[in-house]
């Protein structure tokens, strides 16, 4: 790279922004500029120290517009789609992050939660925190595209979000937190969509979600799930897997040991 490397790298980044791209790799930059990897790395490090770019992963950079400099990174929803496409990794935003997109305001997540097929290390980029959770049968989970300033973000549907919340209870703050989120999410939960998705998730998730919906006075939305449990469930499972079931009452309809007292935070 010539002595005007700073100008060249800035021109390259400006060109990406004009094309609507805010994520790139050092390999792409070196190829576009016809420069060595070391020279590009030095130029990128200078911009990184000034806060003009940030790195959410090794060899990968995001452009940070002035309005996000205090954040130290581009917001997660604005670069996760491009990052996962770069990694050729299927994904969807899920759990509390998805619930927030669907109108659940309680329990604002401290990190952006992403469901993936394989283990990925968490990301810390400035003040942005991203946690990845492995989801079996990821491709079977329905998603919808949410508009962001940089394109579209794949987010689990309300029904898929509800099941995932129950399945990943310890990652979202426990059953009481889930019940509180479900209160906000309930009006978007269509009974037919829940029923259609039930065969694709572990049966205990269906039992627990149905019970929680009844608990928050949304029994009509749980009726199809109750029919599904009645036809399929043979084992009585614990409402809260990590807690002893000694002395617990039993729900015959949901085939659950009610081994937890749940109070919603509303």
Please tell me about this protein's structure.
The protein has two domains: 5-68, Orthogonal Bundle (Arc Repressor Mutant, subunit A), CATH 1.10.10.10; 76-258, no CATH class. Helices cover 41% and strands 19% of the residues. The protein has helices at residues 5-18, 26-33, 37-49, 76-86, 95-101, 158-167, 175-185, 191-197, 203-215, 219-232; strands spanning 23-25, 53-57, 60-63, 91-93, 112-116, 123-125, 128-134, 143-148, 151-156, 237-238, 249-251, 256-258. The strands form four sheets. A four-stranded mixed sheet has the order 4-5-7-6. Strands 1-3-2 form a three-stranded antiparallel sheet, sandwiched between helices. It has a three-stranded mixed sheet with strand order 10-12-11, covered by helices on one side. Helix 2 packs across helix 3, helix 6 packs antiparallel against helix 7 and helix 8 runs parallel beside helix 10 (219-232).
Give me the number of helical elements: 10
Poorly predicted segments: none
- Specify the biggest β-sheet: 4 strands, mixed
Helix/strand class: alpha+beta
Task: State the assembly state of the protein chains.
Answer: single chain
Helix content: 40-55%
Write the element-wise H/E pattern from the N-terminal end onward: HEHHEEHEHEEEEEHHHHHEEE
Shape annotation = elongated
Tally of domains: 2
Strands of the largest sheet, in order across it? Answer: 4-5-7-6
Give Rg in angstroms. Answer: 22 Å
Query: Distance N terminus to C terminus?
Result: 59 Å
Task: Tell how many strands the DSSP assignment holds.
Answer: 12
**Mean pLDDT, nearest integer?**
94
Proportion of residues in extended strands: 15-25%
């Amino acid at each position: 790279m010539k002595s005007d490397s700073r100008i060249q790298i800035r021109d390259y980044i400006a060109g990406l922004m004009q094309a609507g791209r805010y994520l790139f790799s050092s390999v792409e930059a070196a190829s576009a500029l016809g420069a060595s990897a070391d020279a590009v790395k030095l130029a990128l490090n200078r911009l990184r120290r000034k806060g003009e770019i940030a790195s959410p992963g090794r060899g990968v950079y995001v452009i940070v517009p002035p309005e996000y400099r205090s954040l130290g990174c581009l917001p997660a929803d604005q670069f996760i789609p491009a990052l996962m496409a770069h990694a050729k990794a299927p994904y969807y935003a899920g759990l509390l992050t998805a619930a927030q997109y669907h109108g659940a305001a309680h329990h604002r997540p401290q990190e952006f939660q992403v469901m993936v097929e394989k283990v990925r290390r968490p990301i810390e980029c400035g003040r942005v925190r991203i946690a990845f959770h492995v989801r079996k049968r990821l491709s079977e989970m329905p998603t919808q595209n949410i508009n962001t300033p940089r394109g579209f973000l794949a987010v689990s549907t309300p029904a898929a979000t509800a099941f995932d919340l129950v399945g990943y209870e310890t990652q979202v703050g426990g059953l009481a937190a889930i019940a509180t989120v479900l209160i906000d999410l309930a009006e978007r939960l269509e009974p037919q969509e829940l029923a259609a998705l039930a065969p694709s998730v572990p049966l205990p998730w269906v039992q627990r979600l149905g019970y929680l919906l009844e608990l928050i006075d949304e029994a009509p939305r749980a009726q199809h799930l109750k029919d599904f449990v009645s036809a399929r469930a043979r084992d009585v499972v614990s409402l809260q897997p990590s807690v002893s079931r000694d002395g617990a009452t039993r729900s015959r309809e949901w085939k659950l040991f009610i081994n937890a007292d749940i109070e919603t935070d509303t």
